[in-house]
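mind reviewing this fold:
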Amino acid sequence: MRFLRRSIPVAIALILGATVLVSWIDPLKVLVRFPLDAGSLVIKGTKITMEAPKLSGYTREQRWYEMNAKGATQDVTKPDLIELSEIRAKMETQDKTTFHLSSKDGLYNRKTSILNLNNNVIVTSTSGYEMHLDEAVVDTANGGVVSDKHVYAFTKDSRINSDRFEVENSGEIVRFIGNVVMNIDNAGTLQQPAAEESKAEQSKPEQPKAAQTKAAKR
């Protein structure tokens, strides 16, 4: 359970961090920068698609991150909206654990600073943490995340399900709402430390030899 409490804020930070990529992407600005790589920019009707945008670097806490997408599309008639496909992001934590984020689709609104992640939003870590969401609405300005659909998070020894999920202040407040079910493995089992167990064995009184011989003769 302790690991679950630690992992959720990191997962939220990664979801919020994905907006760094879309705030950096601007196909319209790329269009006016010549010469252009024809393989990285596609124009079709009123839509401009940047293929395989990628961004990497370090956070203020010197945590390495990398973010990319299969494509980012902007309609010149709706310049505030950026459509994303197959979003991928990863970030390293202080203990060298790597968190991964993936989402099939996304839509970023520059005017409202809202990023909508849709269709199979998954956060995983190399230490065994996983979080599955059907959707995530990310408010980049206020550091909030809301999901009105089913949420499932688990580690190797704990799991939590809910119908709704809310985050405030970049993970300072996390709420699981509606039909919340939590399972913790071995929650009622108290295991004696090995050192204490050995000490207890040594402290047991030895049976007198005479008594042992007498019992043997019988």
